[in-house]
Amino acid sequence: MTFDVIILGGGPAGATAAFHIAKAGYKVTIVDKAEESLIGKMLGCGVMKTHTFSSVGLPRSQGKELISFIDTFNIYSPTAKTKKVVSYPSIIVDRHMMNQRLLGYVKEQGVVIKASTEFKSLNFENNKVVGITTSNGENIEAKIVIDASGINSEAKKQVPDSYKIEKSIAQKHIARAYLEELANPEDITNLDSYLAVSEGYIWKTATDIGFGSINPDVDLKATLYKFMKENIPNVKTNPEKNYYGILPIRQNLYNMVGEGYLLVGDSACMISPMEGTGVPTSMLGAKIASEVVIDCLSKNDYSQNALWQFNVKYNKTQGATLAYMDMLRRGLIGLSHDDIDFAFKQDVITDKDVLDSITGDIANVSTLDKAQRAFRGIRRPGILLRMESCMSKSKELKNHYMNYPETFSGLDEWVKKLNQINDSFS
Asked: What are the residue ranges of CATH 3.30.9.10 in the chain?
């Protein structure tokens, strides 16, 4: 069987890419190991910025899929003694219902969904990906394979070294997460997040509460329970309704394309590092990917050089923003619990600083504001020095992404400089 595009994984990223490519008139198939009715099934809700759906050209959640509207994001210090409140217009959605709705759209565009079908291997011809083989031995040919199969992508491990695609993610960049549904869902219009708890953070929405951490040794469930007992004892959960998962917390892959091969979503580490959310960023990445793939198909050129425009377009927009946010995240989690409490209480770290860290907007601090912060933080000058250094490195990092190389030949030098920037701040 032959298609223009094979998409591995029918989650939000895969479905978004499939919809737009098929709508442009190309033959697309989605291959997913889950039963079709279970694709995208996860416990817990999803938080979506209100502009996400319009940005990716898809209708917004409605009806039962739309759980609630969000106005504000409460960012608490680790001890829950102080908080920052920022505007955060978003919606909370049922992720499974949303994913099934997206799959309905792709089927309307003629996409063939091969559910209950497990990927086995990539097929190559002259070092170019030309299709896949499934676990039941079926060979499916395609001009381009889009890998949206998640953090544990098997396809990514099989690409040639010459593509210069990172095949694995360092343990220090993998966060584990655990959540439980609330016993009594709340009618609230805010999100709560508690920073830097055991090298991670705790979040609470209208329907669930969870804990994520990059520390591989921390007991997620025990830490969550201890925090709830000490700080928010009135919150009750349904322990039987729980979910464990992993996600990449780092800047996106330095290169996301090969010969006839392209990565999106968790496979490419498209995660918002401050919020730990991947659905909105993955859908935005998939929309950019679909535009590049459609252009390549129209020109009958599926080479790495042609697909390279995805790297350029993504990194100069979404990638640059997420890299900036990742550096700010590193700056915050490097502070002690007492330092964050102090910085929040004394406004050494302001509401706007926190807002910038979750939107990716570059903070411009005036000389007067710097002087006022220095006065407020005079008892702990190290906090201000660290945050000023972090802001400077964040801007440098974002500018570096804005100068992503236009061709494959510039990748090595760009990565070398990127590593220097990352290593210069700890």
From this structure: 68-93+171-248
E strands in 111-173? 112-114, 119-125, 128-134, 139-147
C-alpha atoms less than 13 angstroms from C-alpha of 378 in its C-beta half-sphere: 4
Distance, in Å, from the CA atom of 379 to the CA atom of 300, rounded to the nearest integer, reads: 64
8 Å CB contact between 98 and 65 = yes
Quote the tokens at residue 214: 């990059």
What pTM was computed for the model?
0.92
∠ CA 27-29-31, rounded to 5° = 170
Which residues is 91 bridged to in the sheet? Answer: 48, 69
Of the candidates 153, 180, 178, 177, which has an alpha carbon nearest to the alpha carbon of residue 167?
153
Q: What is the pLDDT of residues 126-152, one digit of tens each?
A: 999 999 999 999 999 999 999 999 999
In the CATH scheme, what is the code of domain 2-65+94-168+253-316? Answer: 3.50.50.60
Give the number of C-alpha atoms closer than 13 A to the C-alpha of residue 218, restricted to the C-beta side.
Answer: 21
Residue 371 has pLDDT above 80, yes or no: no
Contact by Cβ (8 Å): 198, 232? no
Instruction: Reply yes or no on whether the pLDDT at 426 is more than 80.
Output: no
Q: Band of the pLDDT at 197, cuts 50, 70, 90? A: low
How far is residue 298 from each of residues 29, 57, 301, measured CA to CA in Å? 18, 21, 8
68-93+171-248 has CATH 3.30.9.10 classification: yes
Residue 26 Cα distances to 110, 125, 264, 293, 297, angstroms: 9, 22, 19, 10, 8
Specify whether the CB–CB gap between 44 and 208 falls below 8 A: yes
Model confidence at 364, pLDDT cuts 50, 70, 90, reads low
Task: Name the percent of the chain in helix, strand, coil, to the closest 5.
Answer: 40, 25, 35
Domain limits, CATH 3.50.50.60, in the chain: 2-65+94-168+253-316
Listing DSSP states for 249-263 in one string gives -SSPPS--EETTEEE
Give Cα 315 to chain centroid, integer Å. Answer: 14
Do 425 and 390 form a contact (C-beta atoms < 8 A)? yes
